[in-house]
Structure formats: structure tokens, C-alpha cells
Design a protein that fits this description.
about 400 residues, mainly alpha, about 0% strand
């Protein structure tokens, strides 16, 4: 294996560290700085990613992955550094610039991970290597997520601001340097190479859309819980800081463990059914312990809510989602065929990683902002999630899943 490929693997790990830190710590940071009413600011990042990822893909067709990554890594270094710099100023001033910097950060986050993964996949295809880029990305984000929370917990305000500025600037600078000094790998189009007939075929494949709803909704639940963890803890104490950080580590670690689970026989209906049923149990557990906490706000109920409710639900959903992600490619091939895989995976990414998560967030966040201290609010939200999971289970059971025709090595 060449030094250049090792450098790109390290780059992907660094990007995992960066994305893990951004998507876990920034919602908490916004909640701490501006209060619950402004937590929707964070949605500006995935909104920008949703609109600008296709634009970067179009530019890539005229240029190449390296060009896109150099542009995005430089401006990501610039805007994240500016975002952390705002921590040193008064909230009355930064509230006007913070949303703008979040949106611009999202623009350049959009042009990072998929293009780095394509470089590694392209090299692996050319040299007939078995490499799974998603695993390197996930490994980068598992344990390092808690680092910004440790800064917040152990340091005073000034020390925290200095540490956060140094940490995020250093990560983005390393990312930019690795990309800039390792730009000699020639790549071919893998991730964004679409069969012109794919849309016509996918549009008529009802079983694919049913599967897509089920898998994407499970992913979106996990993402929305992540956005709302600061709120779901309830008590705004120093203990909350570490609790949130640990829950994010648990979330990523359970995803990684689920991803590493191997199955000898791929059966679409069976796997998605079990994942959905376990997700229903997880949300039901969280709902029950939320009601228990609101009914009697004792220290014991609060610990049970944190450990079994939030922690237990994150473990169960993370395991399901990680396992589903591992078999996603094989499942989609069984439904649409290898020739239409690229567009199908794009739909899976757009629905699960963007549309569903944003829709749930847009619905749930305003409700929690206005009524989050009322128990009926959580009963309604969790009941809706459970109902939608049951609906996805019904979609799976309507038609029997196709038997696998081929298995693609990870």
C-alpha cells in the first residue's frame, strides 16, 4: 500500500474527528450560548449541505476531487476558525454572525467526505483492494467526540474558548495540509457515476421506496436525537456537560459495534424488520422513562432516564443503524441491481442524511422550544416516532423481500 493512500486514510480519519465534533458539540454550544429558542441555528449546516453537495458534484465533473477538496478544506479551515473566534465576544454581537458562519461552514462541509471517500474507493478499484472508507471515517469520530465537552467541563470560560479555538483550528489545518500535500493520486468517477436510465427504473420500484423509507427514517431518528441531546437531558448543570459527551460517544461506539456485526445470509425483510422492531422498543423505553421522570422528578428517576432511557435507546438504535449501514449496499443491489446502485445510494444518502432528519427536526424543535417542560409534548413526539416506525414495518411486510442474487464484499 502506497504512502499516498495511507495519507488519504488518515485524512478521512481526521475528517471523522472534525464531523463528529461539529455535529455533537455545536448543538450543545448553541444551546449554552443562546438558549433553547436558538437551537434551530444548527440546522443551517445540514440545510447548506443539502443544497451545495449537488453543486460540488457538478463542479467535480469539470475539475476533479483534489480541486474540490483543496477549495473546501481551505475555506472550512477559515470559517470554522472564525466560528470559534466568535466565542470570545459578547453574545449580543455574535448572534448576528453565528448563523451566517454556520451556513458557510455547511457549504464547505458538503464538499469534503464524499469526495475523499471517492478517492480511496477509486484507488481500491484500480488496485483490486478491499477497503471500506466508511469504517475509517467512523473510527475517527468515536472517542474524540468527548474532547470539546471535556474542555467545557474542566476549564473556565476563557480557557474553554482558547482550547476550542486551538482544537478546531488544528484539526482543520491538518485536514487542509494532508489534502494539499497529497494531491498526486489519479482518480476515476465511482461515487457520482450515474447510469442515465437509473431514474426511470427506480421511479417504478415500489419495494425500493418502501425500503428507503424504513432505513432512512431509522437514520433520521438517530440524527434528531443527536441534535436535541442538550434539551433531552433536562437539567442544565455541569453534570449535563459530561453526560451529553458520554452519550455521543455511546452513540458512535454502538454504531461502530453494529457495523462490525457480520451476517452470513442477507435477507432484506428479516434485517430491516428486526432493526425496526428494536428501534420501536428503544423509543418506547425512552418514552416510558420520560413519563416516569416527569411524574416523579427524583434523583433515581433522573439517572434511570439518562442511563436506560437516553443511553439504552442510543445503544439499541446505534447497533441497528450500524448493522443496517453495513448491509445497505447488498440490500439495495438486491432491489435495484448493480447497474442502478449509484443513484439508489444517493437517494438513500439524501433521504436519510438530509430530508428525513431535517423534516423531523423542523417539526420537533419548534414544539420542544415552546412546550419542552410539559410531559404531553414528549408523549406526542415519541408516539409519532413510534407510529412512523410501525408504518415503516408495515411497508416492509406488504411484499416479501427478494432473495439475494449476489453479495458485494465490503
Amino acid at each position: 500500500m502506497t504512502t499516498e493512500l495511507r495519507s488519504w486514510k488518515v485524512t478521512l480519519i481526521i475528517q471523522g474527528i472534525l464531523m463528529g465534533a461539529l455535529f455533537s458539540f455545536l448543538p450543545f454550544e448553541i444551546y449554552q450560548k443562546f438558549g433553547l429558542s436558538k437551537i434551530w441555528f444548527f440546522l443551517l449546516i445540514p440545510i447548506a449541505m443539502f443544497f451545495f453537495t449537488p453543486l460540488w458534484a457538478k463542479i467535480k465533473k469539470k475539475k476533479d476531487n483534489i480541486f474540490i477538496l483543496q477549495i473546501n478544506s481551505f475555506f472550512l479551515f477559515l470559517f470554522i476558525s472564525l466560528l470559534m473566534m466568535l466565542n470570545f465576544f459578547d453574545n449580543n454581537l455574535i448572534i448576528y454572525f453565528y448563523p451566517l458562519l454556520l451556513f458557510t461552514t455547511g457549504i464547505f462541509v458538503a464538499g469534503m467526505v464524499p469526495f475523499t471517500m471517492e478517492i480511496i474507493r477509486s484507488y481500491a478499484r484500480q488496485h483490486q483492494l478491499k477497503i471500506n472508507p466508511s469504517l475509517y471515517f467512523t473510527l475517527g469520530s468515536v472517542f474524540t467526540i468527548i474532547i470539546p465537552f471535556l474542555f467545557q467541563y474542566f476549564l473556565n470560560d476563557l480557557g474553554t474558548n482558547i482550547a476550542l479555538q486551538t482544537y478546531f483550528t488544528l484539526i482543520t489545518l491538518i485536514n487542509f495540509s494532508l489534502i494539499f500535500f497529497n494531491s498526486n493520486l489519479k482518480t476515476e468517477e465511482v461515487t457520482f457515476k450515474i447510469n442515465p436510465t437509473s431514474w426511470k427504473v427506480l421511479r417504478k420500484n415500489k419495494q425500493f421506496w418502501s425500503y428507503l423509507y424504513s432505513s432512512s427514517f431509522l437514520y433520521s431518528i438517530n440524527e434528531v436525537f443527536g441534535y436535541l441531546l442538550p434539551v433531552l437531558i433536562f437539567k442544565n448543570t455541569t453534570f449535563m456537560i459530561i453526560a451529553i459527551g458520554i452519550l455521543y460517544v455511546i452513540r458512535k461506539l454502538s454504531y461502530l459495534m453494529g457495523y462490525l456485526i457480520k451476517t452470513s445470509n442477507i435477507a432484506i425483510k428479516r434485517d430491516v424488520c428486526w432493526n425496526t422492531i428494536i428501534a420501536i422498543i428503544a423509543v418506547g423505553l425512552l418514552l416510558g422513562l420520560t413519563i416516569s421522570y416527569f411524574t416523579q422528578q427524583t434523583h433515581l428517576n433522573h439517572l434511570l432516564y439518562l442511563i436506560l432511557g437516553l443511553g439504552g435507546s442510543q445503544i439499541l438504535i446505534g447497533l441497528c443503524l450500524g448493522h443496517l449501514s453495513r448491509i445497505q449496499k447488498n440490500n439495495i443491489i438486491n432491489l435495484v441491481g448493480t447497474e442502478h446502485l449509484t443513484l439508489a445510494l444517493m437517494f438513500e444518502h439524501v433521504f436519510g442524511h438530509a430530508i428525513f432528519s431535517l423534516l423531523l427536526s423542523i417539526i420537533i424543535i419548534p414544539i420542544i422550544i415552546n412546550f419542552y417542560t410539559i410531559m404531553i409534548t414528549y408523549i406526542i413526539i415519541y408516539s409519532i416516532i413510534i407510529a412512523m416506525l410501525i408504518l415503516s414495518l408495515c411497508f416492509i411486510l406488504i411484499k416479501p423481500g427478494k432473495q439475494p442474487v449476489e453479495k458485494i464484499n465490503e
